[in-house]
Amino acid sequence: MSDPIRVFAEHVSRTHYEDLPETAVRAARIFILDTLGVGLAGTNGPRVRELIEASAAMLGEGTAQCWGHRRSLSAPGAAMVNGYQIHNSEFDCVHEAAVIHPVTVCLAAVMAHADRIGGVSGRDLVTAVVLGVDVACHLGVATTSGLRFFRPATAGIFAAAAGLGSVLRFDAGRQQALFGHVYGQLCGTMQPHTEGSMLLGLQIGFNARNALIAADLAQRGIPSIENTLEGPFGYFGMIEAKGDMARVLGDIGKLWRITEVAHKPFPSGRATHGMLDGFMELQAAHGFNAAEIDSAEARIPPLTHHLVGRPVIDDMSPNYARLCGSYVSARALLSGRLGIDDFSDERRCDPQTLALGRRIKAVVDGNPDANALTPITVVVRLKDGRALSRTIDTVYGNPAKPMTREAHLAKFRHNFETALLPLPPDNSDRLIEMLDAIEHLGDVREIGALLVPSV
């Protein structure tokens, strides 16, 4: 029996823009714009300038745009920088059931490739992103074991491979070889997540870079492997402990996973969002302020606890704080919001925030699903003796509890405005208009031209 990677290869090679339902195209427009905005916000992330210099030294100058900078690099170099920028603020969209940021690696790689070759149309880009999300999310949903590698990176490189193969018009055989090449180059340990290290976002960048290198190998006919997913040392068994492709094979080409992708309303790990949603809804319903809180807890699934159940500590790095459910909940309860500025040095060291965060406990609820992020129950005990609780089954930003168009455009505009170097103000609205009509765009380098700072 052939490896199921062949089914993915055939799906990518035979699917064209005309085959996509309008729901998938609409979601692609939304999340390409969202990801571009998040990438601009990420220009403020740790060590971005050093990464650009390192990329130039390692991989050379070129024609691929580093978003938000006056610098062009080789396609692999720019993909690495842009992939890192998209993820370093934990603001990129997510597929909750798959536990993946499915657009991040794909868009960074495909846009860099488009800068290099020119002539990639808006329809090409939409098709590439839809197919990339499909492949990565099907892999995530097929997984029956919990995280042991960083799935947004390890599955994300398959998304990039699908997107690049689509743009390059690979047939099924060459696409299958490309999937093999990216499997040989994927990376993504969970240790940076545990430590709150910037290496977490860098791993996204590494996979975007490596996907481009893999595509160049496949394009030149260099063979790879056949049994990428279910071979003795394949993806299922080595990277993911267990997987059951029967869970998704019948959905390929019928269920378009991009329609299931969720916005991230807050710049923190998605696993914190259920806590944020619960505490903010509870505060809005009952009108208490942070000074009235005696203690609080969040009862969360094991995966959620593994990802964001870490304690509030002194001298947290921004990356650690973004993945600390107690810290972000304290910031939201104090200010009624959570923004990028809540991870500044001043906010992370604020005594009132740290004291409240230490009174918010994350408790494992015993959910048997190794990949579940919900439901989440939050409880607030007030100093007057009242105990208030709320259960969140669907988290804000999910398609079943979506951000409005006004809200997600406000998120984009704010991210655009917070780029490290000022961009022409009119470019924000021009990007929105361009993405709204992306199927009419002849060359997506026009998008990149709007991401260049003012002189």
List keywords for this structure.
6 strands; 21 helices; two-stranded antiparallel ribbon; 60s Ribosomal Protein L30, Chain: A; 2-methylcitrate dehydratase PrpD; 455 residues; single chain; alpha+beta
Question: What order do the helices and strands come in, and which of them pair?
Answer:
Elements: H1 5-14, H2 22-41, H3 48-59, E1 61-65, E2 72-73, H4 75-87, H5 104-117, H6 122-142, H7 151-154, H8 156-167, H9 172-185, H10 191-195, H11 199-219, H12 235-238, H13 270-286, E3 293-300, H14 302-308, H15 318-322, H16 325-335, H17 345-348, H18 351-358, E4 360-364, E5 376-382, E6 387-392, H19 405-417, H20 426-436, H21 445-449
Parallel strand pairs: 3-4
Antiparallel strand pairs: 1-2, 3-5, 5-6
Helix pairs in contact: 1-8, 1-9, 2-4, 2-6, 2-19, 2-20, 3-4, 4-5, 4-11, 5-6, 5-8, 5-11, 6-8, 8-9, 8-11, 9-11, 13-16, 16-18
Write structural notes for this entry.
With 455 residues, the chain is of the alpha+beta class. It has 2 domains: 5-265 and 405-449, 2-methylcitrate dehydratase PrpD (Orthogonal Bundle); 270-392, 2-methylcitrate dehydratase PrpD (60s Ribosomal Protein L30, Chain: A, 2-Layer Sandwich). The protein has helices spanning 5-14, 22-41, 48-59, 75-87, 104-117, 122-142, 151-154, 156-167, 172-185, 191-195, 199-219, 235-238, 270-286, 302-308, 318-322, 325-335, 345-348, 351-358, 405-417, 426-436, 445-449; strands spanning 61-65, 72-73, 293-300, 360-364, 376-382, 387-392. The strands form 2 sheets. Strands 4-3-5-6 form a 4-stranded mixed sheet. A hairpin with a 6-residue loop joins strand 1 and strand 2. Helix 2 (22-41) runs parallel beside helix 19 (405-417) and helix 5 (104-117) packs across helix 11 (199-219). The longest helix has 21 residues, at 122-142. It is globular, with a radius of gyration of 21 Å.
